[in-house]
Every structure is written in structure tokens, then in C-alpha cells.
């Protein structure tokens, strides 16, 4: 049984016999979640803060952002973790812990451990931070005129540990050069000249502290009561804000992609951050709000409008009242009075209306539901919007959406961000971080005994019993657990892939996706001519732009027969139809000693049906005359007779074609054979069932992430059979299903054969083929036409 260690080192097993330990661990988790947050004083807020005495009330301590204190005292801040020691118990076995500078013993007792953990947590959160205070001499250099106050501040310096520090000339010179002295305690008292009047103080703190500004100036509608309440950030919002603030404080452009859960206010946070920049930091700084439909965009701007109406007049520093004004009689554009900042509405349904806009911030909402057509796509729209936004500080591009399957633009951008290939920071908030998803636990023993493996996994990942109780009760409202995971995902995988009727489990797919990577080689295969005998002569790879991706080039050792299997799924001719895919499967796993096949290369695009088999033959010839398996349904039913003729002609030229032997009405094999793999009700069920086994056991190595996306959207139909979800493809998936099945019917390891020297006929081309290796006497010619039965 998997376990999790608590702070005392004991194993917290999920079993009824360990109820006391579970309840103790749950109390610790609840205490960590229930952060005593006060945005006015700044306690436990995001970002690094400095503890100072409240300059307005002249009493009490508040936490201020480092940048604000830097602006006030004009110096950098040094962090010095205090060394705090506690009385040790008289034990023989003593060992000092080096964790976070806290001295304790291995057997210090419950009180000592709790006290040590409290100090460690305090140091970890940065609540106690040492700061540097300028000397009077250096304050004069910077233009200060309050020597007395500076001398007063210097009186609290740490002279007790270094008694002769200030008496030493060299020490004074170094202190003057550094412009600071260390403070004994982790808090300072700001001099009055730093504060000025309260109005300037609030303006200064508004500029540095978004949470303080939001709690003081912003009022939002409460989801349950409907009342207008101050905007105090919850735990998920503070976590997301920390990511945004990290970019802002580093002077970087703000870029974010957010996979939303429900009912935690992600859109509200993004829009209020936009408002903070436009009201406090920047003038003439325009923003765009775009959603999948215009009504959603209007709702987002409605939050902005309600905020302006309730904005405190004493903190509005413009001559005009805070409100939205019409801009040039435009229906979609509003102007913030006194700030010259425009807010524009748009929708993905009418992308042309947002082209050419002058904006510095873009809030793109529900991007996963933006529709892609032949004339427009979400990718083109986002590119058009972002191209006009400079990469400067305080520019902001936020993509946020709930999940809507895989393979779409939002999912692709999310994967890029998670892999670090995007300029956006990826943020996901699971359901158990949201405070409203809690239910009191009245019978913990019953909850522990009734929890299934998934709920036990939630406990091992750090979820509280109250959240597990809510999840346990909420599942009764859903017909299946997959539907529950789709509505309340625990991780991004569940958010994207759970539809309730998928053939392939999301966990299988993600294990397969772990081996996916960019192809090191892209280009195309070229030959002497595009069809006929010349299509198999002078084969070479042309790097550059092309539809062929190569992960593993053909092995230098060419003595293996049928090491490679090339599977072909034929799609449509035009760009509007399904793709045609040619997949190369290496049965030896790339020659890395693996005993499972891997994807070596893939061609995907559109091509005329009479030319596509020849393109597949070029690739198969490049991979040492690989076994070529062509899905022949489209060719046999094509009205163009040239397509069927091309397959028959290819069979006379390329020797290693897959040939099937159909069965008659009595189930006996017929004498005649046909080239290609025919997909029908029986064969499709056979190859899909085999593919399910391969994916479940991770029995082959996938390279293309698009194949994983197709697996995630492949469904079992109600009347039987399989198909891709509406609006998605399954062409890559079918090449895996057909190719892996055919590869499994060939003896492993691949046959080894050497063609004797002396001009013996090669694989049906008339050319002399010389290989070195073992001679396998098969009793037939070297053309080796591979035959299978259905």
C-alpha cells in the first residue's frame, strides 16, 4: 500500500486501523490550507514582503512588498534568516537539524517539534525578513533631508554582536559604500518622511500591492449571496497572482495560459489585474476582451463596469468620475474616464472585427471552444492579435478556458507551455484547491472504509478528508466516474480527456505521450520520377519543408528483412478532407535493444490517390524494402480507376506488398489473393482490440503527440463499432492499429537473409542487391511476397 509520511516521520496508511494518525495528519493539512489572510495588513500574501510598523496608526505591524520598501528607503533588502535555538531535552541521542536554521533534537517531544515546524514555516514563507536601512550620510547623498529620522533608524542596528564595528574606520567606510547596516530584528519602523500624507501612502501601496488595491477599491458580486463584497483573493487566485507577479517584478511581458476549473474566479482575477494596470500603472494602455461568443465577452466587461461604479471616490485621482464612456459612438469600445484607456469587445465568431486593433493587453476567454473553419482558425486569430502586442513590461496576453477535448488549439498551446516551448506560463487549478468544495466529516471511519482506490489516491496526494468527503458525495450525482472527472478534474489529464465513452484510458495515453518528441528530421522522399519504375530508383531524403517526419532513419544494417512495416491509411484528396498517413514501424525499436516496436517515421498530408501508393513505396524502399501494408478500401471504392490500377501496377514493381487472402461464404480461403488491407466490421474490431492492448501495456513506443490526441478522442459507438469524435480525425490511429497488428503476425526477430553475390535478382526491381548476413534458405525466391489470411 502506498503511504505518505507526516511531519513526525510516521507512515500515514489509509486503513481503519490507522484512524488516529489519519485524523492528526488531516488536521495538519487543514491548518496549512486555512491561511489567516488579511489583504490590508498583507499577512501571508503572495510574493516576498517586509514586516514594518504601520506608519498611519503608529502601532501594529504590517507586511509590505519588497519593491515598496525599496522605494521608501532607497536601498536593497537583505534576507538574513534568524538563528533561533530552543532548549534541548536531556537525551543521549542528540542530533541538530539543519533544516531552515532551526535547532532541535531527534527526541525533542511534541511541543518542540511543533515549535520548530512553526519557525521553519515562518522562515519559508518569508514573513520575517531582515532589511537594510541607509545611514544619514548616504541619505544626504540621495537628497534626503531628515537626518534625525535616519539617525533614529540607525539606533536599532546590530552593534551588540560587533561592538567595535562603528569605531573602526575601515568598517565605517565599508558600511558607507554598502549604504546600509544590518538590523537586529526582522522588522523596521519607517520614518515619517517616508510616509508623507495618507493619500500619497495609499497611492504608493496601490502601485506595488495588487491585493491591497483589490481589497480596498474593488467590489465584486458574491456567487452565493449576490451582494457586492470586497475582492479578497482566495487560495487559487493568490497562487495564480504569484505567477503573474513573478513575471511583472522581473520586468518581463506578462503571458499566461490557464486551464480553468469551476467557481474559483480565474476570469475575475485576470480582468481585475487588467484594470489595476490601466487604473494605477498605465495611461493610454488599451485592452481586448474576446470569448467564443460575444455575450461571454460582455459579461467579462460587465465585471469591469461594476467595479468602476463602486470605485471609492477618495482613491480616484482623476478629474472625471470613474466610469466607462462611449468611444467614437462605437458599440464594442469603451473608454475609461480620465485614463485614456480603451476596452474593446470581440468574439471568435467575427475575427475580422479585431484585426488591426491597437492594444497592449488581450484577455482571450474559453479558447478551447473557438471554432475552426476553412477560412479562419483560433491559431490565426491569436497570432493576429498578439502580433500587435509588443513584448514590453506590463503587456499582458492571457488565454483561459475550460477543457474541451484534445487536439484543438488550446490543448496544443497547453502542451507547449507545459513542455516549456511556449512563452506562456501554464496554470491549472484542481477542484480540491477551491474552498467551497468541502463537506464536514461526521463519520471518518465510514469514509475510510468506503473510499475506493481513486479516493485513496487523493489522500496520498495531500487532499483533506473534508474535500474527499465532498467528492465522495458528489459522485453519486453522476452516472459514471468519468463524467465526474470531466466536470471536476484533479489534474490536466482528466480535464482534457474524460468524455465518458473513450476507448483508451487517459492514463494509458499519458504514459504513451511521455516518449513523444519533435522529429529531428523533416522533409520529403524524392525519386527519379513520382510514379512507375522510376519511383523506386535514386531514392533519397530531401531535408527542409515537407510532410515527412523522421525520428529514426533507416538502420545502416540492411540485412534484416521485414524489420520495418509501412502502414498506409488513405484519406481524401483536397485540404478539406481527411488526411492520408504513411507510418513506418520499426519492429526492433530503433535498434536500441528494445523488444517493443516504435514509430520511426510518418508522412501526413493530401495527395491524389493514384500517386499516394507510389509515395508509400518510396518510403518503404528507403527503409530497406519494408513490408508495405496499404489500406485498400478507399482505392477499391474510388470512382477513379487510375487509383485501383496504381495499386495493381505497384504490386508488379514493388515485391514486398502485403497480400490478403479473402474468405468465401463458407469461411474457407479463396484461391485468389488481393493486394492491400481491407477494413471491414470484423477486421476493424480485430485491429482496434489489438491496439487497445498495445496502448494499455505501453507495448510500443509512440513519437507523434498527434497520435495520442487521436487516441484520446476515439470513442465506442452506441450501436457498436468505433469512430473518432465528431470534428476529430483517426487517420494516424488507424495506421498504428493496422501496422502494429500486421507486425505482430511476423515472426520475431525479423528474418535475416543475404542475397548471394553474382547478380542474383533482388527484391523484384531487376537491380543487383548485395547484403551481408546469414543465408536463410526458405525454399522460394527472394521476392518474399508476404501473405496473410482473414
Describe what this molecule looks like in 3D.
This protein is α/β, with parallel strands linked by helices. 34% of the residues lie in helices and 16% in strands. It has an 8-stranded mixed β-sheet, with helices on both faces. It has a 7-stranded mixed β-sheet with strand order 21-20-22-26-25-24-27. A 3-stranded mixed β-sheet has the order 4-3-9. Helix 20 packs antiparallel against helix 25 (705-712) and helix 24 packs across helix 26. The relative contact order is 0.07. The model is unreliable at 1-11, 79-185 and 753-790 (pLDDT under 50).
Question: Short description, anyone?
Answer:
The protein is α/β, with parallel strands linked by helices and 790 residues long.
Helix and strand layout, with pairings?
Elements: E1 4-5, E2 11-12, H1 19-33, E3 49-53, E4 61-65, H2 66-73, E5 84-85, E6 102-103, H3 109-125, E7 132-133, H4 136-141, H5 147-154, H6 169-178, E8 181-182, E9 187-188, H7 192-195, H8 198-208, H9 210-217, E10 219-221, E11 228-230, H10 235-249, E12 254-259, H11 266-281, E13 287-291, H12 294-309, E14 324-326, E15 333-336, E16 341-347, E17 361-365, H13 378-386, E18 396-401, H14 409-418, E19 425-428, H15 444-450, H16 453-460, H17 465-474, H18 481-487, H19 492-497, H20 506-513, E20 521-526, E21 540-543, E22 548-550, E23 560-561, E24 564-569, E25 580-586, E26 598-605, H21 612-622, E27 627-630, H22 633-637, H23 641-653, E28 659-661, E29 674-675, H24 681-696, H25 705-712, E30 714-716, E31 722-724, H26 731-744, E32 751-752, E33 787-789
